[in-house]
Each structure stands twice: as structure tokens, then as C-alpha cells.
Amino acid sequence: MDRLVLGYDAVGTSFVERLARRPGSLVVLVDDDDRAESLREAGIDARRVDTGDVDDVRTVAGDVDSVVVAPAADAVGRVVRTARAAYPDAFLMVCLADGADRAAAAAADRVLDVSRGAGGGFLECAGGDALRTREFRTALRGVDGRLAVLAHDNPDPDAIASAVGLRRLASAFDVEAEACYYGDIGHQENRALVNLFGFDLRNLEDGADLSSFDAVALVDHSRPGVNDGLPPETSIDIVVDHHPPRTPVRAGFVDLRSDVGATCTILTEYFDRFGIEPTESIASGLLYGIRTDTRDFSRGVSAVDFEAAAGLVEAADSDRLRQVESPSVSVDTLETVGTAISAREVTGDVLTSCVGPIADRDTLAQAADRLLSMDGITTTLVFGYTDGTVFVSARSRGIERDLGEILREAFAQIGDAGGHADMAGAQIPVGILTEGATDTDCREVIDDVITDRFFEALGVTPDYGPFIYADGAHGFPD
């Protein structure tokens, strides 16, 4: 059986009728013969049982996907306990009427206050999304030991807040979890987010011993060894992401929705569906993650993103978020931006710039963002290298180019690449590009290979001159 409803005082006949019209089977159990008869006359499979008796309730069906508890306000605790005991593996949603004690519904996976007009949410949760929520809850409860919640390398706000958020959800199911990442938190706004809200994240070094963890969850990315320091063969238990995958994602539980603008949106939904209130810090981080990944709701945004953000606003600390958005700019960032401007090459509306050796790879993204504001430029590609790797950051605005696909076409065969239509990146081992070149030629070789591959994937012939050298003189390259 798909769905079971215990009682209907909190939602009324009209809700049950609308639920019955949705795909899948439905049975409604009530305590009163007259109510059962009235529902049957409306074409609904309704039966009279003692909704407080586990055995009586279980006589209806042995296996149920989801249970909706909607009793009178004074019967919530009794009916919730019955539902959980009768169907321990089912998704359990409780609808509360005026005067009901929310604490009595603590065992539920989702609690809806119907007195606040949550009818639409009721129908949505009782439908197809209920199965995904149930599977996620089962995955969390199935973790036997410690859970590593891993953000992608050099995490952005969406990855940071998603990792911290999933750790909180895991703790609600008595799972000890730790939010982790490889690389650095280099962007000054990202560091401000972590520091001002006191987010506790563990920085893993390459080759770190993860034997103390019994399960692994990935947030804001979906494959081990791709944009994280895990061995590619690592078994993954949970994936929550919003980036479209290039290959099938393998994990015990996967929630990958490329139609939403941020992974934080998905995590916010789970807080709501499980009836768990995020702390002020977590709510602030989730809100900031949604805002930054959608560029303040101007890129890849969906109605779900708006709804998630609206639910977080009241709980978030707006004063501290303003401090996050206005941190001091690091010297490394200013130097990289300055070098990118000096070394820029422009072909039509496309700007590319090789900044050479870098101290902080995150400065490339900031340079690509800032150069995008130059007059006549709609696409930027800024790249540099450190620790044997070339890092590439690309941005675009107001065009139909899909940078994620373009960078994958250009660099996926020699490194890792991907991202969104207007914001993407790549990582390529230096040795692949400079094999046989002398030390003095490395920068020129890297510049030529990265630029040529990018323009080839873009379908544009690069214009190599005239351009401006750092000293301001005009000339042509050799």
C-alpha cells in the first residue's frame, strides 16, 4: 500500500479527497463508524478502527510507504505512537490542528501546522516526495558509527553550509558526524562565514587516514576523487547535490536535483520535512549558501530556492551576514586581480588571462568575477598554477554559452572540469601541459595550451594582438 491516513480531524474531508485523487493507493482509518461511512460515500476507502491500537491498525496492511496522522488535537501523542509502532519503517507525517502539542509529534519525520494554512505542503509531502524523505531518513538511521560529511575541495558557502547542515540532521538521528573538506577556505567571504558563525569543519590533508569513519556523505558534489581528496574507489553512503552529473552517481542514497539552484535548498527542505529547527547559525549559513550559488536569485534559481530562503530569513542573523558580505580584501586577491588585468587578452567579448604562479587558488575566481565587469566583456577565463596543478576559473553573463559544458569539453580529457552555465572551473596537472618544456617556457606553454583548448571548445578563433603588456606598451606576441 502507498499511503495510510490515521484520523482526519486536523485536515478535513476536502484534504483527504484531494489526496485520494493523487497517484497511488490510499486508506483512511478513523475511530467513528459515521465518519468512515461518510468518507466511503465520497469514494474513499475508509475503515473504522481503534487508531490507538497497534494491532487494530496493522490489520489494514502489513507494508505501508507513508502514514499521515491527522487526529484531534488531544489525541496526537497516542496516535503518533501507534503509527510509529505499527509501521516503523514508513515515512510518518503529522498534521497538527489548533491547540495540538507539537512535542507530542516528536517521533514524526515531518510535522505540519495545518492551522498556518499548510494545505499545499501537506499534499506535496504526502505524495512522491515522501518516499525520498523516507529513504533519506532510513539512510541516516542506517549509519552504524561515525559519518564523514565531505564538502568539495576549497568549499564555497553552499558546500560549507550544506556540510554543517547535514551534520546537524545526522545528529538528530543520533549519528555522530563531522563536516570535512580538503584544500583551503581561501575566499575572504568564505572564511568570514566560517569564523563569524563558528562553523566547526575539519581540514583534511592529502592521504588523511579516514579509518575512524564508518560512512561517508558527499555534499555539493557527487563523485569520490573528483573535486575532493578521497580515493576514487571510496564507497559512498549518501550524496546530496544540485550539479548535473556527467556519469552515473553511485551511493547508498542519492538526492541529486539539478533543477534547484543550491544544495543548501535541498538541505533546508529536509530540515522542514523532518520537523527540525536549524540553529540561527545554520539557518544563516543555508540562506547565504542559497544566495551566493544563485547570485542573489539571478542565476539558475527555482521556486523551491525562493521558498527555502523565505523560510530561513526569520531564523537567520542578518547583522552577521552583512559582516560576511563586507570582509577585508586580502593582499593575495588584490595582487591576482592586478596581474589578471595586466595580462589580459581580449577576443571579441571574451577575456582570458594567465596570472602565472599563485599563492591562493581562490583568488582566481574573484579575479574572474571582477574582470567580468569590464566594458564589453561577457566571458572571462582566468588561470594560474600552484603545487603542480593549473587552476582555471571562468565566468559569463547575459549570454547562452554553457561554461560548464565548454570547460568539460576543453579540459576533461586532461584533468577535472565542470560547473554551471555561467560559472565553472577546471584543474589540470601541470606536467601534462609542460612535458618537455624548459622552466623558462612553462608559463608560456601553459598559457597557449589552456587558451587554445578553451577557444577551440568555445568555437572562437583567438585574436592574439594587439594586446597590452604589464608596462602599458602595445605589441604583438612572438
TrEMBL record:
Transmembrane segments: none annotated. Residues 349-429 form the DHHA1 domain. Signal peptide: none annotated. GO terms for molecular function: nucleic acid binding. Residues 148-290 form the DDH domain. It holds the Pfam family DHH. Coiled coil: none annotated. This is DHH/RecJ family phosphoesterase. It comes from Natronomonas moolapensis (strain DSM 18674 / CECT 7526 / JCM 14361 / 8.8.11).
